[in-house]
Automatic annotation (TrEMBL):
Its main location: membrane. Keywords: ATP-binding, Cell membrane, Membrane, Molybdenum, Nucleotide-binding, Transmembrane, Transmembrane helix, Transport. This is Molybdate ABC transporter permease subunit. Residues 54-257 form the ABC transmembrane type-1 domain. It is a multi-pass membrane protein.
Length: 646
């Protein structure tokens, strides 16, 4: 059952008018069937006039389709992909013939291309071409009314195609032409075919514009619809017979498109659990698990990375081969922009120089940089099998199909998805799709690997499992790998270095241990689950926090006043019902705002001067009888306060 339909009784208030509507549409068509002179049908349809008109109809509609494709495909492309002034106006112009009365379209064509029209006299004097009352004129009239169907349908398909598929193909080494041929075209093909079929059917049925612009000349402009009109005056049965022929053609076109237009489109679920019904699984044995032999091309190579990114995002990255860098930062910090700058896919920031090994990739177009990108959802090409997806980069680099498939099988097997080689991406679970996307990127033998939130789409338990696999395979990748993530656990557990971006700037580029010890921004500290307050150190060893409160730190502070961050781990914060006596030098009052469970402990947010998060055991919470809204005393030992100068 499709998502939107529900079983149950149809309310008569809707059912009755709906039935009337169906009857209203059906009756005239049934009338044609009822009044068709079945006995004489073959002879009527086989007559010279009808076959001539049919031939002309096919010729005119065929030319109209060809012209619509030649002119309409580029127009649809521009409308979908390029921003230009007056775009809304152009789109309106394209749709106009769909809503204009056809006779008005005919008059417009006469005024444009007719003998006394704007262009007509020029066409006649320069090329000796007269369009009205010619077959070429009938083609023009048909093209005028039919092309919009193609443009609108293809524009919709192109606009619906997310650019990440094409960008991923580029990052795997495909030239723009190859991307168009192997990704764009197959992915918009249903839209193109549907548009072409509708456009052709519209051209075949064209009447008003043709009779107005091109007249009704047997053998020259008299197509089937015009013949119907003529026959109706003195041979109604003949008109009905020819109408039946047109009705049959129109129905055939619609039936051939039924998947797209006549049924409620099922949403393709991109990622389903494994073990789907339908396509049988290939036995694992059919997959070559061994390393590919006879391939003289090297695998990924250990290359260092050095780059400076400027523009909307700025960063300096210097990393040894085999380094995994986690790129973290709040929403809109510029993480994706950084990756796109490395890929050469944005004008908003540029990586220059971009030295990978001893090559400066910044001088190369995106498809020659050998920087493989795994976007958030993997962007597996839905029209290709897992195997063809994985071999895509190798094929783009000119590796023969057999060798490319052998190597792709090897990578799929290494990522433990070898038995899924013949499935399509829509038949993979989230975790499987993620592994295939990684296999595809690694198989392309990248010099730099970019993963954009590789685990974001997975649920918690799958995430832990895939994180483990990812860690294993990243350990094998000899080059530099950048992983964008929002998840501190992912950052700390997967990466050797962490690059923190905020507002497009690099705030910190350090090892996870260094980052945990000395977070250089409140966001980093909070990401790591720590309390952090911005403030100024004083010569007396006190920290004046920006909010007005102050803290005492045991470690010596910089001799003179400095801006910095006071950091306190939540486990070092104690809560009390009464004011504590004794050693802690930082004590203040607050109110419990929120209590949340994390692992086996409780995180308690206390609003006060300053706000603080404490992490305590459930038993101490029970001892204190903690509940939200309750006033408490907070204490932090001076030895637990770290000051990080900024
Ligand atoms: N094509 C664009 N044109 C103009 N501004 C853009 C464009 N793409 C992104 N931005 C802006 O640039 C900033 C950085 O965006 P980016 O997508 O790199 O952030 P991010 O760190 O990846 O964010 P998130 O974590 O939300 O994915 C944001 O303020 C965003 O609105």
């Amino acid at each position: 059952m499709t998502g939107g339909t529900r079983p149950g009784r149809t309310p008569w208030a809707l059912g009755l008018p709906a039935a009337l509507a169906v009857g209203f549409l059906l009756l005239p068509l049934a009338g044609i069937l009822a009044r068709t002179p079945w006995a004489t049908l073959p002879s009527r349809l086989g007559s010279h006039e009808v076959t001539e008109a049919l031939g002309l109809s096919l010729l005119v509609s065929g030319w109209a389709l060809l012209l619509s494709l030649l002119l309409g495909v580029p127009l649809a492309w521009l409308l979908a992909r390029v921003d230009f002034p007056g775009k809304a106006l152009v789109r309106c112009l394209v749709m106009l013939p769909m809503v204009l009365p056809p006779t008005v379209a005919g008059v417009a064509l006469l005024q444009g291309y007719g003998r006394r029209g704007v262009l007509g006299p020029w066409l006649e004097s320069w090329f000796g071409v007269t369009l009205p009352f010619s077959t070429a004129g009938a083609v023009m009239a048909s093209t005028f009314v039919a092309m919009p169907f193609l443009v609108i349908s293809l524009e919709g398909a192109l606009a619906g195609l997310h650019p990440r598929y094409e960008e991923t193909a580029t990052s795997l080494g495909a030239t723009p032409l190859r991307v168009f041929r192997t990704v764009t075209l197959p992915m918009v093909l249903p839209g193109l075919v549907a548009g072409a079929a509708l456009s052709w059917a519209r051209a075949l049925g064209e009447f008003g514009a043709t009779i107005t612009f091109a007249g009704n000349l047997p053998g020259t402009t008299q197509t089937l619809p015009l013949q119907v009109y003529l026959l109706l005056q003195d041979d109604p049965e003949g008109a009905t017979a020819v109408s039946l022929l047109l009705l049959a053609i129109a129905t055939a076109v619609l039936l051939s498109l039924r998947g797209r237009w006549l049924t409620t489109k099922k949403q393709t679920v991109p990622q389903q659990p494994s073990g789907l019904p339908g396509r049988p699984e290939r036995p694992t044995g059919s997959v070559d698990q061994s390393a590919p032999e006879g391939l003289d091309r090297p695998g990924p190579v250990p290359l260092p990375l050095r780059t400076t990114v400027t523009g909307a995002t700025t960063a300096d990255i210097d990393a040894q081969p085999g380094t995994t860098i986690a790129v973290v930062g709040p929403n809109g910090a510029g993480k994706t922009t950084l990756l796109r700058a490395l890929l050469g896919l944005t004008d908003r920031a540029a990586a220059r120089p971009l030295t990978i090994g001893d090559t400066d990739a910044s001088k190369l177009p995106p498809h020659r940089r050998r920087i493989a990108w795994v976007p958030q959802d993997g962007a597996l090409f839905p029209h290709l099998t897992t195997l063809a997806n994985t071999a895509y980069g190798l094929r783009a680099q000119g590796v023969p199909r057999k060798d490319a498939h052998r190597e792709a099988r090897h990578w799929l097997a290494r990522l433990e998805v070898g038995d899924l080689a013949h499935r399509r991406p829509g038949e993979l679970s989230g975790g499987q799709a993620q592994r295939v996307a990684l296999a595809r990127a690694l198989a392309a033998r990248p010099r730099l690997l970019l993963l954009d939130e590789p685990l974001a789409a997975l649920d918690q338990s799958t995430r832990a499992r895939v994180r483990h696999t990812l860690r294993t395979h990243l350990a094998d990748f000899p080059g530099v790998c950048l992983i964008v993530t929002h998840d501190p656990v992912e950052a700390v557990s997967l990466a050797d270095r962490i690059l923190v971006l905020e507002d497009g700037r690099t705030v910190q580029y350090a090892s996870p241990a260094e980052l945990t010890r000395h977070p250089r921004s409140p966001w980093v500290a909070r990401m790591l689950g720590r309390n952090a307050w911005q403030g100024t150190s004083t010569a007396e060893g006190t920290l004046l926090l920006d909010g007005g409160a102050s803290l005492v730190a045991a470690d010596p502070l910089p001799g003179k006043a400095a801006n910095g961050l006071a950091v306190v781990g939540p486990e070092a914060v104690s809560l009390h019902v009464e004011r504590p006596a004794g050693s802690p030098r930082n004590v203040w009052r607050g109110t419990v705002r929120e209590i949340t469970a994390q692992g086996g402990r409780l995180r308690v947010l206390v609003a006060g001067e300053p706000d603080v998060v404490a992490e305590i055991t459930p038993s101490s919470a029970a001892d204190l009888a903690l509940k939200e809204g309750m006033p408490v005393w907070v204490s932090v030992k001076a030895t637990e306060v770290t000051f990080v100068a900024l």
